[in-house]
């Protein structure tokens, strides 16, 4: 995803230097070389797995960046980690913005939905980057300054909780149709929902795409992992006493998928692979 974002930024005329531990896709050999290759004040966008990899990257950047530089954390970090990241960089005079990013493997072409958290001045400074990454059209339909540091990742967390619920609803519909002794063409039925119906959506289009290749999703195991955001959403709903039965049930369904092979979870696995390039487990080994 970070590679695709780099290419989209370059296509928009931005100078981009990328560092990756995989030297085959990296422009420089180290984080220090990345910092040295940019003219200050610098903007550095982090796109690595959340948790320890992000923490280590923040610590490494703190040692090579200068006062006035800006770090944008675009991974799926938990919002509670943003304050610590910002505080560490602030000791060196480096600014911090967190951005929830949605768009998966399709974002390179379609653009990315962006939810940012941070000071207004820092958001405005990075706006040319955000404008290059977001979809074409009105800015407010693809970008939001959600609030202070942490708000971007909080917004993305809730976004992903909703995503869990939507995928689960489509998946359960798929399983019910497949179980019916009345409906004889499940893929055609679902494809017919693509236009004019109230349940049409990009996720539905991706499910149709998956079934075009594998009508009964027989190539997939009904095993679906979760990357954290769904759990955090449910935890927040408990903390605020906000009922989220759909999101919670969708998360629990993923847990259940790891115990038995489920037709519904095959559909969820197919959707995650289609929109985000997430790995799937197949019956073909």
TrEMBL record:
Domain 6-phosphogluconate dehydrogenase C-terminal: 152-285
Keyword Endoplasmic reticulum set for record: no
Database matches in PROSITE patterns: 6PGD
SMART domains for this protein: 6PGD
GN (gene name): gnd
SUPFAM superfamilies: 6-phosphogluconate dehydrogenase C-terminal domain-like, NAD(P)-binding Rossmann-fold domains
Organism field: Saccharopolyspora gregorii
Top-level taxon: Bacteria
Homology family: Belongs to the 6-phosphogluconate dehydrogenase family.
Protein name: Decarboxylating 6-phosphogluconate dehydrogenase
UniProt cross-references to InterPro entries, sorted A to Z: 6-PGluconate_DH-like_C_sf, 6DGDH_YqeC, 6PGD_dom2, 6PGDH_C, 6PGDH_NADP-bd, 6PGdom_BS, NAD(P)-bd_dom_sf, Pgluconate_DH
Oxidoreductase found in the keyword field: yes
Pfam families assigned: 6PGD, NAD_binding_2
The entry's keywords: Gluconate utilization, Oxidoreductase
């Amino acid at each position: 995803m970070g590679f695709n974002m780099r290419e989209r930024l370059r296509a928009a005329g931005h100078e981009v230097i990328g560092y990756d531990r995989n030297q085959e896709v990296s422009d420089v050999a180290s984080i220090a070389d990345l910092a040295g290759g940019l003219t200050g004040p610098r903007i550095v966008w982090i796109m690595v797995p959340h948790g320890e990899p992000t923490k280590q990257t923040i610590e490494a950047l703190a040692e090579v960046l200068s006062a006035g530089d800006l770090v944008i954390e675009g991974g799926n970090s938990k919002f509670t980690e943003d304050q610590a990241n910002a505080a560490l960089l602030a000791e060196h005079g480096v600014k911090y913005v967190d951005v929830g990013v949605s768009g998966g493997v399709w974002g390179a072409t379609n653009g990315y939905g962006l939810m940012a958290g941070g000071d207004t001045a820092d958001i405005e400074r990075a706006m040319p980057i955000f404008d290059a990454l977001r979809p074409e059209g009105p800015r407010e339909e693809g970008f939001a300054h959600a609030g202070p540091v942490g708000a971007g990742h909080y917004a993305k967390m809730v976004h992903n909780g909703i995503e869990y619920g939507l995928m689960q609803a489509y998946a359960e519909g798929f399983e019910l149709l497949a179980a019916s002794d009345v409906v004889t063409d499940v893929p055609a039925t679902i494809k017919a929902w693509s236009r004019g119906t109230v349940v049409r959506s990009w996720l539905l289009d991706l499910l149709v795409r998956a079934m075009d290749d594998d009508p009964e999703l027989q190539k997939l195991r009904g095993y679906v992992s979760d990357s954290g955001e769904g759990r955090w959403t449910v935890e927040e709903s408990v903390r605020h006493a906000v009922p989220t039965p759909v999101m919670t049930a969708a998360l629990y369904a993923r847990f259940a998928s790891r115990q038995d092979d489920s037709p519904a979870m095959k559909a969820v696995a197919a959707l995650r692979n289609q929109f985000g390039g997430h790995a799937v487990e197949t019956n073909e080994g």
